Amino acid sequence: MYPASFKQLQALVQVARHGSVSRAAEAIHVTQPAVSLHLKLLEEAAGTPLTRKQGRNIQMTAAGELLVDYAERILRLWEEAGDEIAAFKGVTSGTLRIGAVMTAEHLLPPMLVRFTTGRPHVRIRLQVGSRPEVIGMLSRDEIDLAIMGTPPREFPTSASRFARHPMAFYAAPGHPLASALKLRLSELTDHNLLVRERGSGTRAAIEKLYQDAGAPLSIGSELSSNEAIKQMTAAGLGIGFLSVHACTLEVRNRLLAPLPVAGTPVSADWHVMHKADHAIPTVAAAFHEFIVEHGQQLIHDELERERRPVRRVGGRPIAAASPRAGRS
Predict the structure, then answer these.
(1) Which of 1, 12, 200, 280 is positioned for an S-S bond with 196, CB 3.0–4.6 A?
(2) Distance CA 279, CA 268 (A)
(3) pLDDT tens digits, residue range 142-181?
(4) Based on the structure, what is the number of domains in the chain?
(5) What is the CATH number of the domain that holds 14?
(6) pTM of this structure
């Protein structure tokens, strides 16, 4: 095979991801003819077709898929080499490729802001998905770090706990149970219970809660989104089982009310992890160390900020500022 340039490899990878020359051109900021030329030169170098038309989309041939796999690895290694050279010079830089389960997506932005403060050369690539989706990203090396509750069993990982993760029952403030001082699990039986899908951390937690109590779990509605559960709960359509971290704003604004159910909040752990058999880039290692050391405190600070009463200035609600705002 003849030598290929990085631009040609980038073009091939983007066409494979987007299924389109035009979208690939937008992704790498070149013209469509330039992408087409890169593909043509790569096919000449490979001596075999790498793509084929499928309706309005472009698909990879078997040879194309093989080359895409190698191209992604080559480009990633080159990026990591640049990061290591920067680290050698005392500069933390590079792309932090991180994946998080949906329940954790609200935790990460404040942490990423604090981490990147004073590290202007760090770029963030955050992907959010269900637990199986994030596990898949990690197994395919699409991300370097994953944030979730229980580490996967599908392959070995190096996981570190960085914070506690409480979960509880919520209802609309006007719900009949919202004014109760104490509740038993059995008192929820006649109400529509809104829970996440099988495979999620919150689903595993509620199943364990009922199993430990020896009570039957009767699920009313199963949803694949925390936001959907919050919206349906706030609308009075049932009782939601949710992460406490995900509901502080709704509780403060009286859209949701926590229920004092015996045995709750259920407490689990947040973990940050990477594949056990993989060396991770310097920037990922730096964030791993940062979140293990500061994660619990940062979550606590953010929860306290969100729980502060809303001040009104000129008729508009303005949340009280965090005392840590502006600190690096």
Answers:
(1) 200
(2) 28
(3) 899 999 988 998 999 999 999 999 999 999 999 999 999 9
(4) 3
(5) 1.10.10.10
(6) 0.64
